[in-house]
Specification:
18% helix; 6-stranded antiparallel β-barrel; 3 helices; 7 strands; alpha+beta
Length: 136
Amino acid sequence: MPAHRASETRELSVEDSLDLLHTVRFGRIAFSRHALPAIRPVRHTIVDGCIVIAADPAMIRTLHRQVVAYEVDTIDHQTNLGRCVIITGVADTVTDQQELAHYQLHLQPETVLDGQLIVIDPDIITGIEYIDGNGA
């Protein structure tokens, strides 16, 4: 079956964008590493309106207090239809033990790497939906 092309786009509201972020548990974090762009796939959860991701020590050192972008999507590879959300904010390493324990309560045990977490407090939330021009 031939792939369909999305012929229209629709901007998502902040609420719809956050709904997608809550629904999808896998995304991509974009950041700067050695002054070059880098992207890494990660699992996330949402706690108190923030994106929480488990991180390895190298990622912790790289991302601490850096402005990052976080992207999630539900784009269908056959139809090219779906939704995409991009969050921009500052990534912060969680060092406080009480705060770490609070976030870990919301994570699946297999997603925590050595108890190290990064939290992104969203500053900018943008979303777009790719829809069929025929209204499908």
